[in-house]
C-alpha cells in the first residue's frame, strides 16, 4: 500500500468522525455554547483544562485569533505539554490524587464560572477530581471525552467513576479506545490518532455556538482578531481592556 493511500485513509477516518460528531452531538454542542454565552453575558469567567495531548484542544481556544478573549487555560504544572522531562512524568501526574483540588483552589475560578475539561479517556484521577471539585464549588462543568472509554476500560479513580459522570454537559468525541485509526500488515501497533483533530473541532464548534448565542441576545461577543492583520493589535487591546478582570493569561 502506498504512503499516499494511507494518508488518504486517515483523512477519511477523521472526516467520518467529524461528521458523526456534527450530526450526533449537535444538541450538547449547542448547550455548551449556551452555557458559555450565559457566563460571558453574566459577568462570569471561562476556563479550559486538559492534560497531556488533551491539553492541545484546550490551549487552542485560549488567546486565539477569532476566538473568545475570555477563555483562560487552567494549567496544572507538569501536565500541559511534552516539554516535561521525562515526558512520562506528565502521564504519572494525571494519576495523582489531590492534585486537581490544589490547582483549582489556587485558581481564580469561582462559583458560576464555566470550566471545560478535556480528557480523551476520562479515567484518570486528575480530570475526574477536577470535575468533582469544580462542581462542588459551583462551577458549571463541560466535559469533552470519549464515552467509549467509560464502557471499555476501568476507571483509575478511587470512586470507579469517569469524567462523564461529573459534568453538567458531556460532549462525546466518538474516538475509539486506543486513539489510532489505521492498521497495516507489517506494522505491529495501530497508528494515526485523530483525537486532537476531532476534539479541537468540537472546541471551535462550541465557541462558534457561543458567539452566535451572544449575538442572538444582542451581546457583542468579545472576540480577538489576528495580530497579523492591520488594526488587530488595537482591536485586541480594546477588548482586553474592557474585559481585563476576566482575562488571566495577561498577568
TrEMBL record:
Task: Identify the residues that the record assigns to the SIS domain, covering every copy.
Answer: 36-219
Query: InterPro entries under this entry?
Result: RpiR-like_SIS, SIS_dom, SIS_dom_sf, SIS_GmhA/DiaA_subfam
CDD domains (alphabetical): SIS_RpiR (cd05013)
Membrane-spanning ranges: none
Signal peptide limits: none
Pfam families tied to this protein: SIS_2
Q: Which PANTHER family match?
A: PHOSPHOHEPTOSE ISOMERASE, SEDOHEPTULOSE 7-PHOSPHATE ISOMERASE / DNAA INITIATOR-ASSOCIATING FACTOR FOR REPLICATION INITIATION
What is the name of the protein in this document? Answer: UPF0309 protein
Amino acid at each position: 500500500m502506498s504512503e499516499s493511500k494511507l494518508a488518504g485513509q486517515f483523512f477519511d477516518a477523521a472526516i467520518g468522525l467529524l461528521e458523526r460528531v456534527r450530526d450526533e452531538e449537535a444538541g450538547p454542542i449547542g448547550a455548551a455554547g449556551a452555557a458559555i454565552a450565559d457566563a460571558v453575558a453574566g459577568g462570569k469567567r471561562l476556563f479550559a483544562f486538559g492534560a497531556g495531548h488533551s491539553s492541545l484542544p484546550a490551549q487552542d481556544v485560549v488567546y486565539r485569533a477569532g476566538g473568545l478573549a475570555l477563555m483562560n487555560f487552567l494549567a496544572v504544572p507538569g501536565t500541559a505539554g511534552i516539554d516535561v522531562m521525562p515526558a512520562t512524568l506528565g502521564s504519572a501526574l494525571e494519576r495523582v490524587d489531590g492534585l486537581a483540588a490544589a490547582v483549582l483552589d489556587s485558581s481564580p475560578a469561582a462559583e458560576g464560572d464555566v470550566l471545560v475539561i478535556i480528557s480523551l479517556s476520562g479515567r484518570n484521577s486528575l480530570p475526574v477530581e477536577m470535575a468533582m471539585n469544580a462542581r462542588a464549588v459551583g462551577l458549571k462543568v463541560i466535559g469533552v471525552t470519549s464515552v467509549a472509554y467509560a464502557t471499555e476500560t476501568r476507571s483509575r479513580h478511587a470512586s470507579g467513576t469517569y469524567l462523564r459522570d461529573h459534568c453538567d454537559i458531556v460532549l462525546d468525541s466518538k474516538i475509539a479506545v486506543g486513539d489510532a485509526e489505521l492498521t497495516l500488515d507489517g506494522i505491529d501497533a495501530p497508528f494515526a490518532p485523530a483525537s486532537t483533530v476531532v476534539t479541537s473541532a468540537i472546541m471551535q464548534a462550541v465557541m462558534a455556538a457561543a458567539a452566535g448565542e451572544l449575538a442572538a441576545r444582542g451581546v457583542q461577543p468579545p472576540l480577538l482578531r489576528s495580530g497579523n492583520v492591520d488594526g488587530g493589535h488595537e482591536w485586541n487591546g480594546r477588548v482586553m481592556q474592557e474585559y481585563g478582570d476576566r482575562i488571566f493569561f495577561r498577568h
